[in-house]
Structures are given as C-alpha cells and as structure tokens.
Amino acid sequence: SPEAPSSDTESQADSAPATDQVVNVYSARHYDTDEKLYAAFTDATGIDVEVTEADSAALLERLAREGDQSPADVFVAVDAGRLALADSRDIFQPTDSEILNQRVPENLRHPDGLWFGLTKRARVIVYAKDRVQPDEISNYEELADEKWRGRVVIRSSTNIYNQSLVAALIDALGEEATEAWCEGVVANFARTPQGGDRDQIRAIAAGEGDIGVVNTYYLGQMIASDEEADREAAAKVGIIFPNQGDRGTHVNIAGAGIIKSAPNQANAVKLLEFLTEEEAQRIFSDGNKEYPVVDGIAPPVELEPFGSFKDDPVNASVFGSNAQAALELMDRCGWR
Amino acid sequence: MKMAERTLDGGRLPLLFIGSVTALLVTPVLMIVLQAGADSGDQFRHLASTRLPDYVRNTLWLALGVASTTAVIGVGTAWLVTLLDFPGRSFFRWSLLLPLGIPTYLAAYAYTDLLQFSGPVQTFLRTTFEWTRDDYVFPQIRSLTGAIAILSLAYYPYVYLAARAAFIEQSVCVLEVGKTLGLGPWRRFFRIALPLAWPSVFAGLSLVVMETLAEFGAVDYFAVDTFATGIYRTFMSPVPHALTSAAQLSALLLLPILLLIAAEAFARRRARFFHTSVRYRAQPPERLRGWRAALAVTTCAVPILLGFLVPTVFFVRAHLRSGDSSSIAAFLERAQNSLVLATVASVLAVALALLVTFARRLEPSWANRFLTRIAGLGYAVPGGVIAIGVLIPLSWLDHKIGDLADSWLGISTGLLFTGTIVAVVYGYLTRVMAVSLNLVQAGLTRVQPSLDAAARTLGARPRGVLRRLHLPMLRGSLIAAGLLVFVDVIKELPATMIFRPAGFETLAVRVHELASQERLYEASTGALAIIVAGLIPVAILARTLDRARPGTDTDPDDIPIGAETVT
Amino acid sequence: MSTRRQSNPGIVVEGLSHCFGTSQVLDDISLTVGRGEVCCLLGPSGCGKSTLLRLVAGLEKLQKGRIAIAGKEVASQDSRVPPEKRSIGFVFQDYALFPHLNVRANIAFGIISKTQAERVDRLLEQVDMTDYADAMPHTLSGGQQQRVALARALAPGPMAMLLDEPFSGLDAQLREEVRNVTLDVLRQANVATLMVTHDPHEALVVGNQVIVMATGRVLQMGTPMTVYNHSASLRIAETFGPVNRLNGVVHSGLAVTALGVFQAPTYLSEGAAATVALRPETIRIVPPHDEHVQATVETVTHEGTTICLTVRLPDDTTLVIRDLARQRVTEGEIVHLVVDDHAAMVFERDGHNQATKGVTTSLPPAAVPPYDPESASRTRLR
Amino acid sequence: MSTRRQSNPGIVVEGLSHCFGTSQVLDDISLTVGRGEVCCLLGPSGCGKSTLLRLVAGLEKLQKGRIAIAGKEVASQDSRVPPEKRSIGFVFQDYALFPHLNVRANIAFGIISKTQAERVDRLLEQVDMTDYADAMPHTLSGGQQQRVALARALAPGPMAMLLDEPFSGLDAQLREEVRNVTLDVLRQANVATLMVTHDPHEALVVGNQVIVMATGRVLQMGTPMTVYNHSASLRIAETFGPVNRLNGVVHSGLAVTALGVFQAPTYLSEGAAATVALRPETIRIVPPHDEHVQATVETVTHEGTTICLTVRLPDDTTLVIRDLARQRVTEGEIVHLVVDDHAAMVFERDGHNQATKGVTTSLPPAAVPPYDPESASRTRLR
Ligand SMILES: Nc1ncnc2c1ncn2[C@@H]1O[C@H](COP(=O)(O)OP(=O)(O)OP(=O)(O)O)[C@@H](O)[C@H]1O
Ligand SMILES: Nc1ncnc2c1ncn2[C@@H]1O[C@H](COP(=O)(O)OP(=O)(O)OP(=O)(O)O)[C@@H](O)[C@H]1O
Ligand SMILES: [Mg+2]
Ligand SMILES: [Mg+2]
Is this complex scored with an ipTM above 0.90? Predict the structure, then answer.
C-alpha cells in the first residue's frame, strides 16, 4: 500500500492501544446529545470514550473482520433488530451486572445479558387533528382498513423501524395475517413511501396524508424545534398509542452490548451502567426526546401531554429473528 | 499530421507497473465479486422475483436520462463558450463548473424542501389560490424525473469539461477545412466537431454514468429504487446474508459497466489518431448578437442557476436561520480533516493516473489498455459496498501482519490499516481513480506521438519525455483531474465513515449525521462548508483552464486551451 | 488576356494589408486571377503567401483591403462573406485531413450530390490513391496525405482554388502527372487557381501568370516569360536561380563590362554604374575563336540534365555557366565563351542594394561551405 | 570511398523488412552510409522512405533485419537500443515542433551542455531564424517551422542524421543556402546523413550516394553519375525525368532504331527487342546537314533555364527534346537532330514492363491533358 509510510505513526495512535483509561465505542447512533453523555462519563470516571460512528451494517462488518484484533469494547445500535443480528454474529460477551439487570426491564435486554436497551422509542400512529378523530383508529391492524385508502403516509421499508414493526406484527399475528395487513396498508398509501418520519408528520400537517406512523422522538423534537414551520406542523397532528387494548404499543430500543474481545471490558461495563443512571437517562430523554428505559424516570416534557402508555412486552430479539421474513413480506406487498 | 500507431516500447516495466496498480485498485471490486459467489440462502431469488425488475428499469432510465441530459447541457454549453462569443462568455466559461461543488444529496434535500407538497412553493400556491391537494397537479420532485434532473444538474460539468477541452484543441485546422468545404456552423458542429470530440465526451459521459449508477443519497431520498438503493437496502437489513446478497446485486451491476468500459475503449481507439495538424491556431470565436446572444446567455445561465445558485441560497438561508450548533473549533477540525484527506487523495490519484497512462503510452499493448480501463471500475460500485471490498483485504493484511509480529517479535501491532487514514485514502483511491485516469488519459491523446518521437530522438529518456513534454502539456489536465478528485473526496461519505479512526470527523460525515437525523437546517452549515471547499478548487480549475495553452498567444478570450485542458 | 481577366475575374484582391500583432505580414497586395487561369505565387519562406491564401479563403479576418471572388465581393472593411459561402477550395500546407474519416469519406466530405460515388472514384484515380480508398489518414505517407487533401478540395467543384504548395510532398514523376491533371481539370472547369509553389521551374511551366512576392509585397506579376526574361529587379531575377553579376558603366546607351557591351535601359544616364545580370545558360562555350572571351574552368557540377561550371576570367571575375550535360568539359580546361547579349538584363547598380534591403536571405560568409562550387561562386560574385 | 565506408560505417542497414498489418512496406533493404557522407533516398510517394528512417531511428519496432549506427548494433531480432541512446538526429516530415516551447527552447531541447546559448544562436543564424528566436511554433510559416525542426535536430550533434524531406518547404534560394550550410556542417562533423528528397536534381547535386527505391525495395544505389547515366532500368532512368523511348532490334551488337544505331549491352542476343532510352538533352538541334535526322517542331515550352520541345519524326514518333533557353525555335519549324549516342541507355524491351509492374504511377490516358506537351509526349511515347 503506497500510503503506508505517510501515516504509519498515526495508525499506531489510532488503533488505541489498550489502557484501562479508555473505552472504545462503535456506535451506529449519531446524536449530539451522546457526546454530552460520554463527556459526563469521562468526568465521572476519568475514562476516555473513543467513539467510532458509522452505519451499523458497516460497523458490524468491521467488527467481524477485525475479530480478536478489534479495539472495540462496546457496540451501540439504535434498533433491537440490529443488536439481535450482532448477537447472531456472536460478537457479544455476556455481562452479568446487578445494576444493569435491575435497571433495564426484562423485555428490553438480552436474556443472557449480551445486550441492554438504553432508551425506548414507541412507534406510534399520528393523525391530522383537523381531519381525523382520535377514536377512528386504535391499533396498527386498522391501518389496513379500507377507510384509510389513499390516506396513509409512512416511510420506506428500507427503514429499520418499519422492518422491526412488521417483525413484531409477524410475532403477534403470524405471517399470513401480517402479509394481508401489509397489502392493505400498501393499498392505503397516500404516496410512495419517502423521506423520514418528520416528512410524514409534515405531509400530514400539509394535508398530503391523514394518518401516518412515526417514532415518538421525532415528534418530540419537532415540538421542541426552533423551526417555526416544524412546531406548527407538529401542532397540527395528534398521536395515538396503538394496541393499548391488547398487547400494547410496539416499542424499539437503542441499546448496547459488550464485545467479546473487548480490551477494556471493565470500563465497558462501567459505561453501560453509567448510561442507565438517572442522569444519563435524563440526557437521553431531554436531549433526544426518547423514553428512558429505566422506570420512574420522567419522559420528555414534550411527550408528557400524550400521557403514559403500555408497551408490547415481546422481547426485542424477535425483531432480529423475524427481520428476514418481514423484509421479504414487505417486498412481496410492494412496500418500497 | 501522420501519427505512428506504435509509440516507443518500454519493455516489461510498464506492464508490471500498470498491473500492480490496477491490482491494488480492483482488489476491492474483486472481493465483492467473490463475496457474491457465497451462499445467500434464497435471498437473491427472492429479490429477483420481487424488487429486481424495478431496480433494472429505474437504473436504466436514470442512467439514460442523466447521460442524455448531461450530454446535451455539457456539450451544448461547451460549444457555446468555446466557439461563439456573447455577453458574459468568459464568466460562464468557468462558472459553468460551479455545480461540481454541490453534493447531490444536499441538492436533493434542498429541492425537496422547496418543491415537496409541504414545501414553501406548493404551500404558497395552495394558500394564494386556496387550493387543496386535489385541486392542482404539481410535478412530483421525488420521482425518477426529479432524480434525473438533480443528477444531471450536478454531473453535467464532467461532460462540459470534456467537450470543451476537445473543442478547443481541435478548433485549429480541421474546422477551417470544413469551412472551405462549404459547411455552415451547424454542419461543422455535427459532422466535424462532435465526431472529433466524441471520445472525450464519451469519457466524460462514462464518468457521469458510473457516478449515477453508484449514486445512493439523492436517489434514495427521491424514492427511486435503483441498483444502488437496492444494494444498500439489502446490505443494511439486519439479516444473515445481507452482505452476500448486496454483493450479488453489485456484481450484477458490474456487467453493464464492463460493457460500458468496452464501449469506451472502442470510442477511444480512434482518439489516438486525433490532431491531424501540428499547428495550434486559436480560431476567433464568432460573435452572436440579438436574440441569438440572449439565447446563448440563457442556455448557459440556467444550469448554473438551478445547479448551483438555488441550492446554495437555500443552504445560506437555512444556515442563517438555525445553523450547526457545534463549536467553531469542532467545525474547523472537520474542515481541516476534509481538506487534508482530499488533498492527499487527489495528489495520489493524479500521480498514479499520470504514471499509469504514461506507462500505457510507452507500451500500448492490449493487456495494458485493458488494465488501465478496469482500474477505474470502483467508481461504479456504490461507496458503501466498495468500502467493504476495501475492508476485507485490509483487515486480512492486518491479521497477517499482526500474527507475524506476534509470533516473531512477540508484540501486538494492533490494526495497522483498518481504522486509519491509510484505509480511508485507499478507499478513496479505489473510488475516484476512474476520474483522474479518464482525464489524464484523454489529455494525453492530445499530445501527438510524433512529439514523443521527436523528444526521444533528441535524447530524452522516457522519464525526460514525461517531465519535459507531457507534464507541461498536460498541466491543465492534471490540475483538472486533481481538483475533480478533490471535490469528489470532499463529498465522499461511506469509506470515510467506515475507516476513519475513532472520533475523526469530516464535513461530509457531519452533514450526514445531521441529515440522517432529519436535521436539515443544521446540516446546512456543513453543506455550505462543503460547497465552499468545493468552490475553491473549481475557481482554481477555472483559472488554469483560462490560461493560454502552450503554443498560443495570451489573450484569454480566443485562446485554445485544449492541449492543456481536460476531457 | 488582361481584358478577359477584367471582364470576369475569378479572384480579385485589392490593397490587401495584414498584421499579426505588430508585424506587418502583408502590405498592400493587389492581384487578379482570371477564370480558368493558374496564378503561381513565388516568394521566400515567411513572406506571407499562406496568409494571403487564408485571407482570400476568409480564414483570417480581413484588416485592410478588398477581396472579390467570381465578381462577388466577399470581404472588405464592412462586408464579410463566411468561408463556407465563398465557393473556394483550399489545399492546406499541412494537409489537415479528417482523422476520423477514411480516405474516401475525406474526399466525399464536401460533396452533397447523389453522384458522389463515381465522382469520388474519379478523384481517387486522378490522384492515384484508388488502392487507399479505405485507409485511415494516420496510416498514409506524407505524399499520400497530400494527394487526399488535394482530391478533397477538388471534390465540391469550387469557383476558386487556393493551393498552398500542393505538390511539395510528391516525387518528381508523380508530381508532374498529378499537377498536370489537376491544373488541366481546373482550367477546363474554368476555375481561378492561386497556387503557392517553391519551385520556380514549376511556376514557369504551369502558371499563366507568376507573382513574385517578398516580405509581404508583390515585386512583379506577369507571364512566366516576362518575369523570367525581363525581371524587374535583380532580386526577382535571382528568384529563378543564380545569375552572374557583371559591373559595368554606361557609355552612349551601352553598359560596358568585362564580357562585352550590353544594351542599357534608357533611364540609365551616361556614366551611370550598371549591373549586368546574365543567367548561367546565356553564357555559351563555343569552339575556339580568337575574338571570344577565354576562361579557365574551375569546377564542374553534374546536375543531371545540366552541368554547372564555374569559370574564371582573365580579370579574375568568376562566372557560373550552366550547359547541357552533353557538354564534355573538365576542370582546368580553357574554354571560349560567347554571351547571348540580348538575354542580358541590365539594372542600375545600387538599385539592387535597395531591393534586397531587409530581405537578405544570404548567409554570413563564414557559414558558407567553401567546397560547394555553386553557392560559393555566387556568393563570391555578390 | 567504399573501403572507408566499410572501415567505419555511419549507418548500416541489413536485410530490413517491415510490414504494417498485412501490407509489406519494406522488403529486404540493405544500405550503408559512411561517416561524413550524404546518402539521398529517392522514390515514389508511399514507397517506404519515412518508414525506413523511423526504423533506423528506432521509432518503429524492428521486425526483420539488422541496423547499426557508428559501428554499434542498435537493432536486431534480439537487441534493441532505444532511440534516445542512438545518437541520431531526425527531421520529421511533419516537423513535430513542441507547441509549448518557443523557437529557442525547441532548438535547445536536445542540448545539455553549458554552451547552450551560443550554440543555439549559431544554429538560429544557420537556418536564418534569428529574428524568430522567441516566436511560438504556431505563429511560424511552414518553411520557418521546417527550419526550426532542422536546427533542433542538429543541435545535439548526433552521429547519424535522418532527414525526411527537410527542405521541401523552402523557396529555391533559401533551400539551396540552408541545404549547403547544413550538409557542409554535417560533412565536416563527420556525420552519416540519410536524406529523403523528392527532387532528383537535389539528390544528384548533394548526394555522395543516391539510393533509388520503389515499393519498399532498393532499385539501385550508387554515385549520382552512375545512377543517372547508367541507370539499371528504364524506371530508374525515369526517376530523374522523362526519357524518350525508341524501340529497336539488336543486330550484331547494335540496337537499330529510327534515330540510328546504338551500342547494345552484351546480354542482348541477336534479334532481341531492345528499348533505347534517350534523355531529352541528349538530342541536339544542329545546323542543317543532310545526314541528320529531320523533324518538325510541334510544341515549345519555356522552362526558364531550358526549353522543352516536342518534335515529330517522319515516321511519326514524337520525341521530347530539352535544350537551353537560348535556343530560338518556333513551332512548325523543321529542325535537324543529332544524338549523343554514347549517352543512350539500351535495355531489353520487356525488361521494362517487368520493372514497372505494380508501381505504375502513370495516369489513365483519358485523364492526361492533351495540351501539355511534356507529359503528353511522354505518355504517347510509352
Ligand atoms: N501506421 C501505418 N499503418 C499502416 N500503414 C502505414 C502506416 N504508416 C505508413 N503506412 C504505409 O506504408 C507505406 C509507406 O509509408 P511511408 O511514410 O514510409 O512512405 P514514404 O516513402 O515516406 O512516402 P512519402 O514520400 O509520400 O512520405 C505507405 O503506403 C503507407 O500507407
Ligand atoms: N498566427 C500568427 N501569429 C503571428 N505571426 C504569424 C502567424 N501566422 C503567420 N505569422 C507570421 O507571418 C509571416 C507569414 O507567414 P506565412 O505562413 O504567410 O508565410 P509563407 O509565405 O506561407 O511562408 P512559407 O512559404 O514558409 O509557408 C511569417 O513570418 C509568420 O511568422
Ligand atoms: Mg506557407
Ligand atoms: Mg514520408
């Protein structure tokens, strides 16, 4: 490799040699608030946090290729499906931490403690206040209902949150029923799935669609936004926590696990534990408008008006195990 | 006048050199192809039965659409500013390059934000005419057509550069012959200028097409399913065989590209014989007046307006309203990282390209021609995937070295390449070599073989020919190549993301982070920075292009800059 | 003839001047080429011949003067007909073939008519390139390229033909054949032809008119015989080959020289210094006879058809004599000379000096090869 | 001389053959150029002259044969010295000046030594381009470019010089001067010079040796006088200008023709059909005398130094006669002719046909301009 000499020295430095003063994080999350968290951790423990951010798929490849040489201690993903996949690649080591086990609810962590949820986001139905009555729809299944023909907006099936949602539905309804549902939803699309969750909210506010499906924190962020237009749009929509009557609203997590070959395993545990402390959880919810995983910590103020809700107790790892099926199912229904 | 077909042989050396460079550059692509060989369950069959038809159709239309549009804009404007004279000509001559500086996905964001249903334009229409969504038809920006438009506006400069250089350098004698044979401007254009410029134009077009095929951000944002989006989608999905099936799609995508390369090789075959006269004489541009002039001005103004002004203004406004909150220091650091990386990458890319093409000229054997062609293959593979292709051999190397060091010296080297700048730059090179190779190669076809011959008989060794003849005559091509690479790298994302050392951020990365959180307005700051970073080189490029080519007088207005410029 | 030319001139150039930057390349050129006439341009390298042709073709922007083709004004201060509308053919000094087209396509390029095929074939035959119809230009030899360029210019059948050294790359035989056919075709098609050549012999043989140029000016223009036998100046005389210069003085209308007396032009007053120019072939070696001038043969150069001698007169002037190769002469031999006195050209002596000022193509004596009889003798004569 | 050439040959070419694709361009060429010698290559357009030069220079890959320069083998099947190591100078048919360098820099390109400056100045002077030292190539006229190319090739002081029509773009006067200086310099520097020219006259005057080529083969090689006066074949004879062909039959060692009898070569057996070639200048117009052949003058063409007549014999054969311009002849006049019989060349008749096979540069009779005496007569004579 011709460039080798030019930056050999750098490379030494970069592939952080193991000292107990660092913890290396491979993170698929890119939120500014996270930096705050890591900073706080360093203040609290004197341990530096080296973060490598990239798309989780890429990170996983890199982890896999680096193998036992990998400098990574912790892998952070914004979706349980991804965590499950990582698990299936067998990159995590089990962590048996009292603190973590009692702070993180059963369904939001791996049975053997391979990974733990850190924040919670509910995938809810939003509706145009002026055109839809809150009681017109109360669960995901109804999204397939005739009456929403040409009124549903949602992002593409490439999006991991949708994949997990469908994965959860498969778990709840079985594959046939889910496929039928999926076809119904696709039939109801107001437009080809496009943009992100905010775009769905904007579209509803602007009248391009009447109902849609989004993650709660996007709405929270829009409400808190200093963009006039965003606040207005957010104000025009209401949210419904689906399936309160039965299994509960589909929630997903951002979570993390400790890498098998972690050079700084101890620090890694410290980090995870720190992230579940009240202070850290606050930063998650205030900063990013996500729901804390730890009970008894207040949700983001912007989301308080929508009240508390019952979330689907299914273990997040099914998102991973059903992902393939979900994906192919959406393909078949032509959900772009 | 006469060009000897064979140039002077350099023995085995060229083949060796070209071979190793090409090997280095295409290994990642090969890795992907190999990966495609692995078993992906019935993933692929599934894709083939569900999404593939869409991918093929959209990709085809997109490529065709963008290629034809860029061809028209690029060639048209190039012809105007080169051979005709009208108000603002010399301004347009360089400002037509500006859209290069704007990353497509940002342009996409901007235009979507402006034109989507909830965007200002449509909202304005609705409020002023009290329409509701059903009362009017508004072209859907998030559509194939929209994508074609955006990409064309972003990529036409490649063709423009190519065509312009070609026109300039041929403007000498053959066009004059055309005149004396009774051809009017139009027939001169279609029967002489265009055919002669074609290989260069084709080189430009092939860059455009490859870039289009690899384009993810904008296209995905526009809800158009192409191979690229499909590859990403498959790659990103949390399923066991993700990479393999992504690789299989990529491999599939490579087939048409190989055809493309073959086609270009064919078009280029003739290019070697260009330049029938040793006389370079600037031909005074014909002055346009009245409505013709007006038409010319609009033709040149529109691409700049839509391709550059609109997005830039958009981001400026966004930035002023709510720019990136992160500290200046952090921001400057990112900027610095971007610039350093881009500089290193472009210098390497150009140097390699120059050496490779020169070696190939010394020994234009079939093998060497083929090798130089495929060296640029990486340009057509979506960045994220090629990045994995880079990752595979690098990490393998890391382990081998690591084990050796471990067993021999008993020390642990850690990872020497992955997660270092080395890897990042290597990643870049595998992507952008196509650009520098094409430009330098095309530039070199403008240096008559008989000039090499003359230099050799005057005692210049190949090295001397390179230094004393090609370097000065190619100055423009080289700078142009370097700057195009520079701009490309500034915008590059995937390779940076995967390989960068912990905590290492570039402008593009930053913008991506914010954008991926749908925090467009904050992304605007980084976007502007990228645009500026892209502008500087474009400005430099413009200046070199407008300097007199060797063998001309110095009035920049009727000077052939050709031999020195790019295709 | 001159009247005919007036009546329907093919090419008319009036008061043409041209500058590149500061250097004046053409200076008040005027000339007329009648239809069906061939006019040969002779002149030292760099004197502006190509530029003149380019201006007539409209490839350079006219700066001063006026140009008309086939009675129609094509360029003047205020009007300008673009080249493609001038109905001209142009053979460029550097052939400039279209590299992306094969020979046939190159030739057919300017033809629109349906009859293409056989016309092209005829032209291919005419320039003897039939075997190369499908070759690409870069595979052609210099001469072959030149012939294609010629055929290409002939193809559209223009009204005026501009030839810039169109045969320079051809061997003597082919040159003569192609030249004769081409010019014949042009004459029969009643085309006005302006042709640059570097071969005075060629100019004299094929030209209806010969124009002698130097440093952007027309020195003399007239029929071959006029410019050759009655050159307006020594310099012009020398354009057609070296001449012997004898210094003389005018006495009662005769220029008296070492080689005898010659009729002096009337404008030379009594006692004026004259230069008598004698072409090498006008001095003849004759059987001994005591009233003839005697001279010693110094060098003999065989030139094929002719031999060239340098001989020394008793008074040490050296003369260059050209005679047919059949003359058997050996160096050192004494020969008797006779001059065809009516063939002598008599000029005012210093007139010559003026004439050459500024355009001296002569070399610094140092650089002159002593061993070479011809140029040596000439330079010594100067 | 030949011995000297053997002792230290400048350029040696042995059994050189070359093909482009399928077409054989050079066929078993062998030649030797001694140091300080000038060897002129004559041959029809496209016969392979430039290719030969390119091979010697190493610009084309050698396919078959062997090339040595200054006693050192530079190319053969198994070895190959790159061009820059061959110490050669090359003046290209298309000049190939470096467009990004001005005249001075172009000339200086090949010089490394400190003495650059004045050397370049001397060369500039030598080719009379001092005034253009700082001009860029594209602003030069054809001839000026050619002179720069020449100076550039001379600059490094090579051991062998390859000139491809180096003077074709120069006017007669300048051509002669530049040529003489250049060749003189080369001779004095003991350089072996191989020069392509299209002007037989030039070849005869400046060449120590002349090589006549056709279709890739060497037809004859020897001193100018040999090739001219003792051409090995009719075709070679014609390379130096048109000849009159008389058909004759051999009787007791003499070829009997309408113009008299000529010594036939011994290999012609009794009764063999012979062709007698007479150069136009070997037939002379003489004062009336009844034992001379009489003929009627048909056309008179003035060629400057010479005039060219076509005359018709009683038996209707037409002859071309070239005599010095001083001859006063008018068309229709009856003249008496004498032939310098020792100047006649006698060949086996059909031998000629063989010779020309494949390389006929003659034109279809139809195309031949009837009015042109010279070529007309020639073709009719054929
Ligand atoms: N690169 C090439 N490919 C194929 N044929 C070629 C190539 N170069 C030359 N030829 C052919 O080889 C023959 C000899 O070419 P060459 O240039 O040596 O002729 P030449 O003797 O120099 O003629 P001229 O006096 O017109 O320059 C020509 O018939 C030409 O068509
Ligand atoms: N584009 C130009 N810029 C500046 N000077 C030029 C340009 N073109 C020609 N010249 C100069 O004009 C003069 C005449 O050039 P031109 O080509 O007409 O000469 P020419 O008579 O054709 O000579 P030759 O017989 O050598 O071709 C030359 O001295 C040349 O240097
Ligand atoms: Mg010229
Ligand atoms: Mg040649």
Answer: no
